[in-house]
Amino acid sequence: MWGYIIAGVVILGNLVFFFSRRRKISIPRENMENIMAEKVIASVPDMIFMVDNQFNIQKIYNADPVKLSLPVEALIGRNLKDCVDPPFVDIVISNLREALISDKVYEVEYTVSVHGKITYYEGRFKRVQENLVACFERDITGRKKNEVAIKQNQRLLNAVLDNMPMPLIIKDIDDDLKYVFWNKQCELQGGYSREEIIGKTDIEVYGKERGEHYRDVDFKIIEEGNSYQVQEVYETPDGGRHVSIVNKNVVSNDVHHWLLATRWDITDLIRIQEQLQEVNQQLRMAFSVTNTVPMVWDLEEDLIRFKYPEFKVGNKGFCKERDGQSSLEAVGNMHPDDREVMSQLFADIKAGKIDNLHREIRYDVLGLYEDYYDLYLTVEKKDIIGKPLRVVGTLRNITESKLYEKTLMEAKQNVEKIQEINQLILDHSNNGLVYLHPDYMIEWENLAQYSEHPLAGRYKAGLCCYKSVMHRDAPCPGCVMQKALETGKREMKEVTFDDGFTVEITATPVYDIKNERQIRGVVLKYEDVSERTRVANEWKRAKEAAEMSDRLKSMFLSNMSHEIRTPLNAIVGFSELLVNTDDPKDKEEYMAIINRNNELLLQLISDILDLSKIEAGTLEFIYDMVDINEMLRGLEMSYRQKIAKHPGIDISFTSHVNECVVYTEKNRVMQVISNFLNNALKFTSEGHIHFGYEEQANGLRFFVSDTGKGIPSEKQAEIFKRFVKLDSFTNGTGLGLAICQTIVRKLGGEIGVLSEEGKGSTFWFTLPVRPGNS
């Protein structure tokens, strides 16, 4: 039909074109032809778009305003690319290009969206003249929806069949019984994937012998047209054997025929039946061994029957009649103390008030009531209105159990008493204990009672120790428990926490009683050794201090013997030379040497005395108001006299405030500054030595600066230690700066040095005093 319509439109289009060229010749006839062409076009059930070689719309026939995105006038001249939904633009344009250069009809499906509504179209493109294509556009939205619905229904049907809880097979009768469907259960139970089955015959899948057998059965079913059901054993490729019930039926429509087969695997059902038989036999044996009788109470007949009658033989006190007894008779065989309660409970069961009953009774048809029984009843069947019809239950002799229970209760009380005593012992020992399973789970602990440390509270039974205590995802590195598990021996470890808390952890593996090689768990003993560790550390420090003191004393004696002997030798030697010489110059030189060594010896003795006073804690500090400027000017004059013979050195008191009177220890301050000045003189051969002080926010800062040889940076941290000398060839004990440091700290200040090797040094100290502040 499409071909006729397109051909007609093409012919009519050519006629319109032809008559338009003859407009001047025959106007009336042209109008008649145009009217006929328009009537034919109007009868076509499609919108027709005339599109040029630039894909612009030139004319629209049979326009449907509802389906157009714009009015017809607005669409004329509009490019078709802007009218079709973007995903289909390329394929539509491609077909239009082909139509422009060919006489063939091109077909394509696409969508057009108008105000958010999507419409599906089937387009057919045919060239009607050069550079002009007629586009026939038919609305196929309804057909598309039907196709989608059909596909959805087909997918749903396939999903239902594919997910059936039993294997489902479909063979195509019209195609040599080839497999066309093989659901998931077929894959799971049959051992073959769909790829291995679909499109193949039974012979191709199972081989000739087995395949021909299946085909013979199938052909017989097809020939007779009957249903087929049989129990057969199915063997999977992995050698598994499955008992199945197979059903086969022929299904067909008017044109096609299929063979539908289902396979119900009853292997598990048969196994369950066998297991039930075995369980039933085991129950009979269990009832016999435990002296338990199952019972059924028919409420309609009010008759209680005891099952397995072999249990009643020889049990004279159990049942008078094998055929059963009424509930009234049963209550009458109970101990008088139990009858009233049991009579009411039986009545409640009959009335539907309760469905279950569990009670210990004393039951004996002989009236001795020496035996105890455990009675359990439950309503097993009711009518449609909920009225109980049948009750099932058991009656078990528990006389021996009652005796055991009494014995166990007494034993339990004894164990609890022992546990209480053990707990008291554990809680009052100076140790915390934790019992851990090999998987690091805490089974028991008493740490919370033993210690108030925050970590102790994190040990909780039922938690993993490294997760709850240390907040880790894996055991701690070097875990003492892990080591004990590996070695099978007792392991110890000492742990000190950031807060100074130190514990000694002892991990002791606990072996299984029955298997001495299997570790059941680990006992961790936590002992607070913080005090012991502190005492040990103090003892160690004291020992090291004593050893250091001995070494220092030995060093001191060795150093002092050398330092004292040197000036004494000079004094004695030059004294003898002084006696034996008459030369005035020699005498003057010898006297100067003797005086210098006298001063050195006095300084050595003074340092030794100060050190001994410091060690004994008797170094005196006498505080008074001190004029700092006056004190330092005196030092300036004194040291200028000392360097009178050294014209290359200038010593000056350079920095100070106008007035500075403070409350401090004058002699000790002078001692520190003098020591700084003496050291500066030792190591400065030329240049200057400047000293003074300055006022700071926290007090006064004193300094002595020189242009001497300076101090290496690596030795600056050592110079305030005892017996440290930068130059072993320079006279001195190495005690001066150590004594200065002690004095400054005693005065509440700080001491330090700034130095650059080869350029000089600045020694400084601070005093927390303010001018005029007493």
From TrEMBL:
Membrane-crossing ranges are: none
Annotated keywords: Kinase, Membrane, Phosphoprotein, Transferase, Two-component regulatory system
Q: So which residues are the signal peptide here? A: none
Q: Which domain of life is it from?
A: Bacteria
List its EC numbers: 2.7.13.3
Residues forming coiled coils: none
Q: Which reaction does it catalyse?
A: ATP + protein L-histidine = ADP + protein N-phospho-L-histidine
A single MF term (Gene Ontology): phosphorelay sensor kinase activity
| Any Pfam family | PAS_4
Enzyme class of the recorded protein, top EC level: transferase
Can you give the residue ranges of the PAS domain? 153-225
Q: Where is the Histidine kinase domain?
A: 559-771
Q: Which PROSITE patterns match?
A: HIS_KIN, PAS
Q: What is this protein called?
A: histidine kinase
Organism lineage reads as:
Bacteria, Pseudomonadati, Bacteroidota, Bacteroidia, Bacteroidales
